Task: structure prediction
Amino acid sequence: MRRHYRRLLAMAAAGAWARLPSYPRARQHLPGGRCPAGAPGTAGDTRLFLRAIEGAGAGFEYAMFLNAAERRLLCLFQPGPYLEGHPGLTHGGAIAAIVDGALGTCALAVAGTVMTANLSVDYLAPVPLGAVLLLDGRAERLEGRKVFLSCHVRSADGDTLHARATGLFIRLDPTKHPAQEEGGGR
Result:
């Protein structure tokens, strides 16, 4: 995983790609740290789902890199033992969760605050626990408030296509979902 991470960091150093921070709370990912008013979990100690498992290497280990000009996101991902489904294999729900997180992050960068409307995942090959994967997500098109995305989940060496997915995200209407200041609603 380190070799692949170093390669992605070199791409970021070249300028077209940016290494995205990996925050534990959803509000930290939103522009200005703002959440929709009255959103559940805006008060107290909430955690971003993909960062809910404590312990290095136990759950979702990932790093995301964004190329805003290409509307594309790469996510280096290694599933830990707490993501087991069938013995020795990663649970399909964990694959769907990391795809949703990657596509949602890409959509957020392209269109602002969004919500998942539809996510479709085709599972093509099992993912062994601890395998190093590269998710390649991209915004295919925008239609009004709709953001259509696609994603391929491959082994980091590119030899195996484990899953492919499509997603539809909807940009939240700021007139119906006004932003709430950090710490509001407490």
About this structure: The beta strands are 18-19, 35-36, 60-67, 72-79, 114-123, 133-143, 146-155, 161-171, 179-180. The radius of gyration is 16 Å. The CA atoms of residues 152 and 164 lie 4 Å apart.
